[in-house]
Design goal:
Shape of chain A: elongated
Number of strands of chain B: 10
Number of helices of chain B: 11
Helix content of chain B: 40-55%
Strand content of chain A: 5-15%
Largest interface: A-B, 24 and 26 residues
Largest sheet of chain B: 6 strands, mixed
Distance between the termini of chain B: 30 Å
Number of helices of chain A: 13
Strand order of the largest sheet of chain A: 1-2-3-4
Number of strands of chain A: 4
Helix content of chain A: 55-70%
Strand content of chain B: 15-25%
Oligomer: heterodimer
Largest sheet of chain A: 4 strands, mixed
Strand order of the largest sheet of chain B: 6-7-8-3-9-10
Structural class of chain A: alpha/beta
Order of helices and strands of chain B: EEEHEEHEHHHEHEHEEHHHH
Order of helices and strands of chain A: EEHEHEHHHHHHHHHHH
Amino acid sequence: MPETGWLKPDSGTEGVRWRFGGDWTLAHATVLDRAVGSLKGGAGALTFDLSGLEALDTVGAWLITRAAEQAEEAGSRIAWVEPPADFRPLFERVFEAKPEPLRPERKRVLFVDWLADLGAATEQVVRESADLLAFFGSLVETFVRLAARPTRLRVTSVIFHIERTGLNALPIVGMISFLVGVVLAFQGADQLRRFGAQVFTINMVGISVLREMGILLTAIVVAGRSGSAFTAEIGAMQVNEEVDALRVTGLDPMEVLVAPRVIALVIALPLLTFFADIMGLLGGGIMSVALVDVSFAQYWRLLNNAVGLNTFLVGIIKAPVFAILISLVGCFEGLRVSGSAESVGRLTTRSVVESIFLVIIFDALFSILFSYLGY
Amino acid sequence: MAAWHDNDDVVISLRGIVNRFGPQVVHDGVDLDVKRGEVMGIVGGSGAGKSVLLRTIIGLNRPAAGTIRVLGKSMLDLSDAERRRIEERWGVLFQSGALFSSLTVEENIEAPIKEHTDIPAPLREEIAELKIRLVGLPANAGAKYPSELSGGMKKRAGLARALALDPEILFLDEPTAGLDPIGAAEFDELIKSLQKSLGLTVVMVTHDLDSLAAICDRIAVLVDKKVKVGTLAELERDPHPWIKAYFHGPRARAAGIDRAAEAVPAN
């Protein structure tokens, strides 16, 4: 068993003789690093005696090389006693590869750097918004072209995506809307009881589900489910160079990949919203019957008095707009994937966050618009 | 053939390795010995199980039957802690480098050192820089992320990471695939010179006939679910049709292997 490396000075007539011995390997690097630290150079002659080395790897060779260099810088002249012949090539190799002196690093100024980061982030947001707008423009252009030659639209693809984004989302959307209806009625009845106005629970459920909750929840679920799927699918194709293959085959990715997804979601999201509205009203109804002391027939009548067709329309009219936002962001981020698989994950997350953000912004804009119009 | 070669000279020893995926048998009784300090090339047709064999040796794939001894230890019977001690003594270069994409090249090289030793940070950084130089990367490559490197540089960086712990054995999976002929020749040269100066034992899967001719001491050919081992000159005289086609095909002739073979019987 070879021993841990060691380093011993012998004072002789021709200056200090440093004897290196034992195992100079990675396993003992910490000890050796400290031992080499004790080696002080200085004017005069030094001898490095490597004849006692028993094992050596690049780390050991590096430590010895570094020590020699530092001693030389301090003004020593070094005489070498050769290591065992087996270690010669390793020494030569490490000596050739010894690092250059460290380059001075740029000093970081905290505040200035923070300001620069902020500026860079702002610039990026502006540029990306412009890119998204440009993407919307080219989508419109694609639709104009498709309108001129409708046979070029991939009907199979559209139907496939309606199934995936619409039909397959029914259980989750229905479930969430139903539960939100239940919660709304429960909380509403609880608060309105204090004013003896429990019966208005039904107005509250009806209006909030139809105007806001149904569409907003559906849009958020679809953004998480289908917007992310769009980004991931198109992103994976981008990584695989399938999108490039489409282009060189003379097919327009906008036409083949983006347009069918947008059309499918514009059809599916209003339908899903309608379903969500019904489930929400059903949940609210069941809770009202249980808490407010009305029969189901009375609930139905009171609901009819509380909401009109326009209440429903105000909600559902937002659906196609949200559908365009979600599919647009999903496809846009997917096409921005570059090369690495890592960017697929990053951009998928981004696509979900961005599309939910945009959906809520637009929902707020719609509210302002409708209040101006007096709905 | 079945006897254990328990002497110091054999660092890797496979006996009766069987690998199957579902009904498909990939290896059926593979025996292979790799001696200390040699460069062993593993070749075979597509789907012959070269990479599977490599993955079996390094423990990423458990064989259905057979024994694997690395550095005198029977790998399939070791505890996790013992396995880790053996794993510290080998390095692996995967086909496209397999660098951790969230770390810089320097951090990639430091990662195994950090995990397996308690070397202080400044020395660790020095070691990483040294490895970057050893594999011939420019000094500024250390601060770069893998996505900023070309294919050839990624392989070099992957090699530097494989060498981080100064291993005794180096496993390479198609080290020259995807490199241009000049880059591939340089990489061969680098492996050969590192192997000599660091005293490495190298096991490489390759398709590259130039690599075989340039740096491999012995070659293991995977045919008929078994291996045939020999030097280049021996394998060239092998009558097996696939081996014949491999070493005497037009590409072998281009790599200068065939001519060398014709010269052998003439002696």
